[in-house]
Design a protein that fits this description.
- There is one protein chain.
- By secondary structure, the chain is mainly α.
- The chain folds into three domains: 93 residues, no CATH class; 54 residues; 63 residues.
- Helices cover 63% and strands 0% of the residues.
Length: 286
């Protein structure tokens, strides 16, 4: 993203990064195992696009007979993974002999070695190989087993976002962080368009706010207001709204900000206090 060119799969930089990652992760696994600390080697599923079982492997063309043998051995290896991991690993290696670019079989080898046989160091390169071979997601959605009627009950993402507190303020905060990132010389040099787009987005969102809110945003952008981490924008705007007597909006903003900070923190305590103060005003007559 910051560089002037993409790093290709066969680039020496990528190989060096893989070697460094493998060395450090191996050290972590070994130290954990030495202290009887369980280790789970995994990645976020949505980051492994196309890697079975999230999406199918894009298989190279094999003769029909060899393809049937491959599929049969792979299915059998999966069946034996829990009961006979050693046999599962042997079958998986036979599949690698038929097609070494099959991501799922490398995942099977890693599972057999790590979770069943306890050979974590042996499993690591298989996990890495499986990840390297991951392909684009299939057009078939991963939730294909869910009944269509049940899917119809799900809300669209924008509704979920609003329920979680999305607003013009959260959009501005996100756009402002992107603008700050691409304002740095290193990033801006090769990503001028992204900087301009985020700058325009911030200006558009700010123009749609009230004068009071814009004043609060300017205060929020003052670095002296923040500590080690930035206060949520809703926190600051909520304070301005509360001082202006708009307790309902302030309470809503404080609830969003309260969910955005650490559960045990001074900011959480302060937000709880302000939220209680707003509620006291809102329910004064009840």
């Amino acid at each position: 993203m910051a560089g002037g060119h993409a790093i290709q799969e066969d680039d020496e930089i990528r190989r060096s990064a893989t070697k460094s990652f493998q060395a450090h992760l191996t050290a972590i696994v070994r130290r954990s195992a030495a202290r009887n600390v369980p280790v789970v080697v995994c990645t976020v599923p949505t980051n492994e696009r196309g890697l079975a079982p999230i999406g199918p492997d894009v298989e190279t063309l094999l003769p029909a007979g060899e393809r049937q043998v491959l599929q049969a051995k792979l299915a059998r290896a999966e069946e034996l993974l829990s009961s006979e991991p050693q046999m599962s690993a042997e079958l998986s290696r036979e599949v690698v002999g038929l097609q070494s670019t099959h991501a799922r079989v490398h995942l099977m080898l890693a599972a057999a070695a790590s979770t069943r046989l306890g050979r974590h160091v042996e499993a690591l390169p298989e996990y890495i190989r499986a990840r390297t071979l991951a392909r684009a997601l299939s057009s078939t959605p991963p939730f294909r087993s869910i009944h269509r009627a049940e899917l119809g009950k799900l809300l669209d993402w924008e509704t979920y976002a609003r329920q979680l507190g999305r607003s013009v303020y959260t959009d501005y905060e996100a756009a402002n962080y992107v603008r700050a990132l691409f304002r740095t010389e290193m990033m801006k040099r090769n990503n001028e368009a992204i900087y301009r787009r985020s700058e325009t987005r911030c200006e558009e969102l700010l123009a749609g706010m009230s004068e009071l809110d814009r004043t609060a945003v300017e205060r929020w952008r003052d670095p002296s207001l923040h500590g080690a981490t930035d206060q949520p924008l809703e926190f600051v705007i909520g304070l301005y709204r509360m001082r202006a007597g708009d307790y309902e909006t302030a309470a809503r903003l404080f609830r969003v900000a309260r969910a955005s900070v650490a559960p045990v923190s001074l900011w959480r305590l302060e937000l709880t206090w302000h939220l209680l103060a707003c509620n006291r005003h809102l329910h004064a007559g009840s």
